[in-house]
Amino acid sequence: MKAIEVELASFVPDEVTVVIEEKTRGSIMDCAPGGVSWGSSTVVRVTEQPDLGDVAAAVRAGWARTGEFEIELTEASTGDPSLVLRSAQLGNYYFRQFDDKVQVLSFSTCFAYDEERDGYPWEIAAE
User: Fold this and answer.
1) In Å, how far from its chain's centre is CA 78?
2) What is the CA radius of gyration of the chain?
3) Beta strands of 8-77 (E only): which ranges?
4) What number of helices (H) and strands (E) belong to the chain?
5) pLDDT exceeds cutoff 60 at 127
6) Are the C-beta atoms of 94 and 105 separated by less than 8 Å?
7) For 93-97, 100-104, 105-109, 121-125, which range has the lowest pLDDT when averaged over its residues?
8) Which comes out higher in pLDDT, residue 86 or 114?
9) Rounded distance, CA 41 to CA 26, Å?
10) N or C: which end of the chain has fewer CB within 10 A?
């Protein structure tokens, strides 16, 4: 999941990318009775905002996992463009734009949490 997030961040055009800042930790949240979802993000610092339509086209044309996702260019509640990638098996990914950055958020599918297998919530890190 974290690898997909970073792969997607790399589709922000090089000519506007200053640096990609990968977070090393994530968080878990409830998603169903007895289930959790793992969330994380990667930030792409930019000199100017890329056209998310161009980013979507680049992902569709150049990403090996395109067929595993529904890719939708939509509008956020603020009216700003939003790029959403959904997969029933691999989770959901969102591109959000801020002043000097593009944030790629990722959320896993819902799964049964096991402390022995997954670690304690405060220990969860991207692997």
Assistant:
1) 19
2) 15
3) 17-22, 27-32, 35-46, 70-75
4) 3, 8
5) no
6) yes
7) 121-125
8) 86
9) 8
10) C
